[in-house]
Design brief:
single chain, alpha+beta, CBS-domain, Alpha-Beta Plaits, 2 domains, four-stranded antiparallel beta sheet, three-stranded mixed beta sheet, elongated
Amino acid sequence: MLAERFINSSIPNIHLYDSVETTRMWMSLLNVHHLPIVDHGKLVGIINFLSLDNFETGTVATVMTTIPATNDQWIFDSQHIFDALKLAHEHQLTIVPILSSDYQYLGSITQQDLIRAMAEVMNVEETGDIVVLEMNPQQYSLRDIASIVESNYTRLLNVYTSTLTEDGTIYVNLKISNNQISRVVADLERHGYRIAYVFSDPTLVSDSKDHYDALMSFLSI
């Protein structure tokens, strides 16, 4: 999941001598608010759509004399795609420039590319049920949770955590395979885990009425 894999070849390089009109046109066509400024293979910076507001004509160089382009928002091609996501989130970027180890500009990753990358990382295309656990950070043990899930003849397809409360409570999102969700949920509860949510893939629900009734019971928790 290196960043280089998700470089979008359709993102043009904006040069210092390019016009404001051309730059604005590309942003509109690509539905982005940022574009990389490149000079002789080197990243000069990122130009923002808002910086063009006061310019009807002129060049990118002219814009930069008034509003300098940001030149520290990029990652190396060998970094993980998560680093690109973090940078985009922190600076509200619609593109993330990618550089080689010798600081040559290689291309950019768009927001849509990041969504596609996250879909791959999170294994969203594989069918499975989702169980969300709510716990204190001290209670979290991936080894223990995985052992409980796998002891019920299921596979753990994906795990990710999030902190959404002021007291530091974390939510552990488990995506599991097969159609044993009621058994997994019951076993997790027996081990003291609090079930926040259960989302069942309807294609995996057994035709057994007993299994269906058990599933509905857990979904109403």
